[in-house]
Amino acid sequence: MSSGALKLLTVMIPLSFLIAIVGLRDWLFGGQLNLSLEVIAVMIVVLISAGFSAVIFRLAQKREAEIGQRSEQLTALHQAALTLTTELELSVVLQKVAELARGLIGAKYGALGMLGETGDYLEQFITSGITPEERARVGKPPSGRGLLGVMIREGKPIRVSNIADDPRAVGLPPNHPPIYSLLGVPVHSKGKVIGDLYLANKLPRNSRDGREYCEFTERDQEVLEMFATQASIAIENAQLYRQTQQLAIFQERERFGMDLHDGVIQSLYAIGLMLDDTRHNLPYRAVEEKERIAQALQGLNEVIRDIRNYILNLRPERFQGNDLRCGLIELERDLRANSFLSTHLELDGLQSEVLNPEHTVEVLHIAQEALTNVRKHARACNVFIKVAQQDHILVLSISDDGIGMRGEQMRVGGQGLINMQLRAEGLGGDLDISPRPDGGTCVTLRFPLHHQ
Q: What predicted TM-score, i.e. pTM, was given to this entire model?
């Protein structure tokens, strides 16, 4: 019913009541004027009209406010869904889900916890409303205890007006911002819970009431559950996009590797056979020519070996998925198998997950280039690979007992050395290449772990 109709109703009903009273008076008293009754009747009509109008308009205003708030939330929900559809990068989508949920309901803090493969632990925890410095002071992300653990185990929404009074809560870690009210809903994908959306400390709509926070309502929960449905679709799309990209890269790498193997390597191998045959058939007087052909054969063999290694590097499983320990063990094994070098690997105290996957690949590329230089140029008998953690610094050193690099070589360097320097800078560290006191060269990479 519209406001205009309500206003008309508040006038018509008292007027009808007054007419009824006048008619009743005429019927009872035969039209005789009684001033007292007239005054009483008017007062009754006025009181009833005022009371009726107050009740009706209070209900109408409350209803309009609810409708307005619901309309705002639905509009915000629509805009949030549109915002999610414009992004396909998974990490960005997850961060936007946490931020949009917080703004949608009006909460001070928001978070998105993504569950692991088994669905019983938090694999990722994305926050909103807290600065990186504040998050660093809190320390490790939650492991899924207390109220968060209840959601993980039950897979149902949770709404708590005061966390301190809830017996399921286990308290907050030191330096954590104070949390009062909590609202959490699960994020479903293909019939399975893949994560949980959390909001804390709902902000009051009217800041003049003096409250810092208020309770989440049932309507807030309904809106957040609808948003969680939209978020699950966006997360699925981002995951599919990432898988499609990885598949395309894998197919292109496999094609490139097959072309190299079937074309370039076979051609080089044929040239090597031809030169080898020529060397054996040359007159013995051409000593210099034999030496040059032998050098050409050695160069061709090195090219073939390098291209084979490059083909291996094109495959995603070469370094992807390996931690630093496994990657260095693999590089040391390959070097020992493809050369006459004695290798010495020291990994004492190296933790498996000391680096994230992206930085692990960068470090392994630096190590690979350094070991390739030892094999090709050092004329060494031994190579030493050592990794050490010094406080928050990781130190990787690769040294040999070969002929060493001359000063001009270390100062100018080739493309491989330039790439190593650039990768070290990308890690926020530095690369040092210097001669060893007892002969040979030492390559040392240092970079801070707190940047990883």
A: 0.48
